[in-house]
Specification:
The protein has 2 domains: 192 residues, Rossmann fold, CATH 3.40.50; 142 residues, 3-Layer(aba) Sandwich (Rossmann fold), CATH 3.40.50.1400. It is 50% helix and 16% strand. The protein contains 12 helices and 10 strands. It starts with a strand and ends with a helix. GO terms for molecular function: ferrochelatase activity.
């Protein structure tokens, strides 16, 4: 029997690797079109103005501080690690399907929708892996919309999307082990009270009219994820933290965003007499300008004496192994679904 041909697409936002205005302009325009317009009505004529202003601001700021994003490079490393794990897998699904691993991005090339267009005619199925733990219209919702646009009524037959990763206890275990392995106890424990800021992307709570947002924001999921990780940390015998606070990274447009910001967490720790703080961006699978630049800058500027930034899970082998396992399970589900569809079609044909 001929094997099916599947693709696994490791997808994330994407940020420009080479910092130039020419690279930033198209990226910012796509962000405004795809994300900002979901929460704020933006006239078409303003899209270019807003995006180009955003590009110029980032270019000047990043250039002055010698910052270049590592997001795409990290996603590429993660894609390679996952590909290696899948090649070594002895799961029975690989006796019926051949799998190719690809990287794609929402806001920089190779664009996810272009990749899906290429795969639609030549691959029997696709598993899309949005590289962020908590779903919302602004994260995996972007991927889902692109899938719907490209595959239309074939979407449920041809495509699976990994979701609800934040709920997996195995991810929680990997996170906790990763965190405690990297805490610099010799330095951090010089302080008398040590706090932990868990950084995640904030979300819209109410629109500008004071109403609940019309799009799915993942607010409840964000809170539940924080509580689950906090509980695992506080109950772990390796725990060195006296208090754990959530630090959300918010935008300014659209209305009221989550209250528990990084700035608030750091200020409360300072006011409560904490002289040692660790920051870990658990809400991101890869470091990016929001984590390794904006969040870390806020930590560096804090007056707290002892500070440590722990990078995102990034190229962790344990993380790659876990995610590969989730992908294999999704490949198997897709194969089983397609076999069921094919059996039903065969039955219909025979009956007629």
């Amino acid at each position: 029997m001929k094997k099916k041909k599947y693709a696994v697409v490791i997808a994330t936002y994407g940020e420009v690797e080479k910092l130039t205005l020419r690279n930033l302009w198209p990226s910012s325009r796509r962000i405004v079109k795809v994300i900002t317009r979901q929460i704020v009505k933006v006239p078409k004529l303003l899209i270019y103005f807003i995006a180009d202003y955003r590009s110029t601001r980032h270019y000047i700021d990043w250039r002055l501080h010698n910052y270049e994003s590592t997001l795409v490079e990290t996603n590429r490393i993660q894609t390679g690690l996952i590909a290696s794990r899948l090649r070594k897998s002895d799961h029975p699904v690989f006796s019926s399907v051949d799998v190719e691993i690809k990287e794609a991005y929402y806001f920089v090339p190779p664009y996810l929708e272009d990749t899906l267009e290429e795969l639609r005619e030549t691959y029997d199925g696709v598993v899309v892996v949005p590289m962020i733990p908590v779903e919302s219209a602004f994260s995996c919702g972007v991927a889902c919309q692109m899938i719907s646009d490209v595959y239309a009524d074939k979407r449920f037959e041809k495509v699976r999307v990994l979701n609800k990763l934040w709920q997996d206890p195995e991810l929680h275990r990997i996170y906790i082990d990763y965190l405690f392995q990297r805490v610099d106890r010799g330095y951090i424990l010089k302080g008398s009270k040590t706090g932990l800021v868990l950084v995640i992307h904030g979300t819209l709570v109410r629109d500008r009219a004071g109403n609940p947002p019309r799009v799915f924001t993942g607010l409840d999921e964000t809170s539940a994820f924080f509580e689950a990780i906090k509980k695992r940390i506080t109950s772990d015998p390796r725990n060195v933290f006296h208090e754990i606070r959530q630090g959300c990274m918010n935008h300014s447009a659209g209305g009221q965003w989550t209250d528990d910001t990084i700035e608030k967490a750091l200020e409360e720790f300072r006011a409560d007499g904490y002289d040692s703080v660790v920051m870990f961006p658990y809400g991101f699978f890869a470091d990016n300008s929001e984590t390794e630049y904006e969040a870390q800058t806020l930590l560096d500027k804090s007056s707290i004496a002892y500070k440590q930034y722990i990078r995102c899970i990034n190229g962790s082998p344990d993380f790659a192994g876990w995610l590969s396992g989730r992908i294999v399970a999704e490949l198997n589900t897709l194969n089983n679904l397609q076999n069921t569809f094919e059996s039903l079609e065969c039955c219909k044909t025979n009956a007629s």
